[in-house]
């Protein structure tokens, strides 16, 4: 576009403004828009980081990361149990934030992919920082005590049993001749609370456990409360719990 064309367009716009056909917005409008976008952007970034940190926390706290070491079947179970809805919601927030930034002039000078990668990187960084704090542990305790509305359900589901995927977890309360008994509770007093009798599946070698070990079991659950474990992983050790009720 040459100089004469630019001058013509500029003059045409000025003429329309003077004639009242185009309303000239005050400077305060643009400042308010920038401020509103900045506030919404910070909030979206914070929520995104919180969601990302919750995904990391839930995978670690549930012990489901151990499934990655259980071969192809364990990896499949891990992918099925992965908290995908939170990830999809987080990605939607990132796209929304990217869309807001595109409303500014600098946004058109930066490729969309670069903006998205930058926002994603910042969210991941802050997510790791949040995960280094006791925030999620505190919220989990409040959820266990029914003191966390709205978000409480998400935290309570961390400890759900997943019999359909062959995944069980609990605390070792007793040993048997060929295995051990674990007590499972997710603090909601529902039907998946109770004991599991763990025996090794044919050809499987289970780790040596002791009372108080919190373990993740991967195997074939039976209707009688038995599970034939193909793999097991000790997650951590707690104070030895009382034996299960007979």
Break the fold down into its secondary structure elements and pairings:
Elements (H helix, E strand, L loop, with lengths): L2 H17 L7 H36 L8 H11 L2 H18 L10 H20 L3 H10 L7 H5 L10 E9 L4 E5 L9 E7 L12 E9 L4 E12 L9
Parallel strand pairs: 3-5
Antiparallel strand pairs: 1-2, 1-4, 2-3, 4-5
Can you give a write-up of this model?
The protein is of the alpha+beta class and 246 residues long. The protein is 48% helix and 17% strand. It has 7 helices and 5 strands. The protein has helices at 3-19, 27-62, 71-81, 84-101, 112-131, 135-144, 152-156, and strands at residues 167-175, 180-184, 194-200, 213-221, 226-237. Strand 4 and strand 5 form a beta hairpin. Helix 2 runs antiparallel to helix 4 (84-101), helix 2 packs across helix 5 and helix 4 packs across helix 5 (112-131).
Provide keyphrases for this structure.
5-stranded mixed β-barrel, 7 helices
Radius of gyration: 27 Å
Based on Cα principal axes, name the global outline.
Answer: elongated
Please identify the structural class as seen in this structure.
alpha+beta
Give, in order, the helices and strands: HHHHHHHEEEEE
How many strand units? 5
Enumerate how many helices there are, as a single number. Answer: 7
Mean pLDDT: 80
Q: Mind summarizing the main beta sheet?
A: 5 strands, mixed, barrel
């Amino acid at each position: 576009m040459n100089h004469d064309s630019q001058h013509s367009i500029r003059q045409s716009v000025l003429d329309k403004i003077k004639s009242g056909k185009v309303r000239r917005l005050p400077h305060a409008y643009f400042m308010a828009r920038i401020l509103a976008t900045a506030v919404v952007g910070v909030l979206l970034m914070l929520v995104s980081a919180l969601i990302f940190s919750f995904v990391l926390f839930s995978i670690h706290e549930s012990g489901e990361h151990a499934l990655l070491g259980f071969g192809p079947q364990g990896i499949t179970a891990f992918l099925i149990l992965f908290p995908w809805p939170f990830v999809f919601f987080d990605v939607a927030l990132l796209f929304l934030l990217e869309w807001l930034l595109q409303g500014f002039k600098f946004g058109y000078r930066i490729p969309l992919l670069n903006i998205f990668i930058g926002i994603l990187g910042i969210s991941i960084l802050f997510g790791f920082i949040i995960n280094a704090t006791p925030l999620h542990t505190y919220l989990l305790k409040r959820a266990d005590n029914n003191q966390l509305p709205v978000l409480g359900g998400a935290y309570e589901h961390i400890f759900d049993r997943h019999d359909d995927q062959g995944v069980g977890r609990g605390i070792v309360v007793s040993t048997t001749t060929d295995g051990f008994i674990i007590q499972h509770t997710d603090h909601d007093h529902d039907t998946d609370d109770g004991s599991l009798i763990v025996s090794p599946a044919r050809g499987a070698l289970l780790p040596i456990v002791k009372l108080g070990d919190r373990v993740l079991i991967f195997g074939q659950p039976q209707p009688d409360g038995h599970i034939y474990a193909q793999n097991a992983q000790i997650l951590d050790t707690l104070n030895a719990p009382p034996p299960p009720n007979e």
